[in-house]
Amino acid sequence: MAKYSYKYRPHFGFTGFLIEFFKGSEDADLLKDVLIALESIKPKAQPLVDLWMNGEVMIPFESNIGEFEISKDNYDMVFILGKESVTKMIHEILEANSNFLSLEVNFDDYHLKKI
Questions:
Q1: Distance of CA 104 to the CA centre of its chain
Q2: In this structure, how many other beta carbons lie within 10 angstroms of the beta carbon of residue 77?
Q3: How far, in whole angstroms, is CA 89 from its chain's centroid?
């Protein structure tokens, strides 16, 4: 059974894709387990960005497939952000790892509603 679940989904308004963690996002080992799963792309952490206004921490990474960021906030919401080609490759790596379960996505949920 997977320890973590996530969605590879569009940003609201379809401006690119991101990875959003659900089950296990509060787990202190999530970041370590993600980095172990991503060893093949050789992620290297860059200086931390602390967004103190909303209690969010963003950790930028360089890797051999491009740059990405892991974001975590006070509410244990965890995201991986980057160019679509990078997040797609990360999704494929996580999807092949038994610690991670990719959840189905309803793309209609991410269309911006007209007022």
A1: 15
A2: 14
A3: 11
Question: How far apart are alpha carbons 61 and 63 in whole angstroms?
Answer: 6
Count of the separate structural domains present in the chain: 1
24: left (phi over 0), alpha (psi -120 to 50) or beta: left
Q: Does 48 reside within a domain?
A: yes
pLDDT value for 51: 62
Query: Is residue 73 in a domain?
Result: yes
Is 72 strand, coil or helix?
strand
Report the Cα 90 to chain-centroid distance in Å.
Answer: 8
Q: Which domain holds residue 97?
A: 4-84+93-103
Query: Is residue 108 included in any domain, yes or no?
Result: no
111 inside domain: no
Q: pTM for this one?
A: 0.89
Q: What is the pLDDT of residues 92-107, one digit of tens each?
A: 999 999 999 999 998 8
Quick one: what percent of the chain has pLDDT higher than 70? Answer: 90
Spatial separation of the C-alpha atoms in residues 108 and 62, rounded to whole Å: 32
Provide the β-strand partners of residue 72. Answer: 57, 78
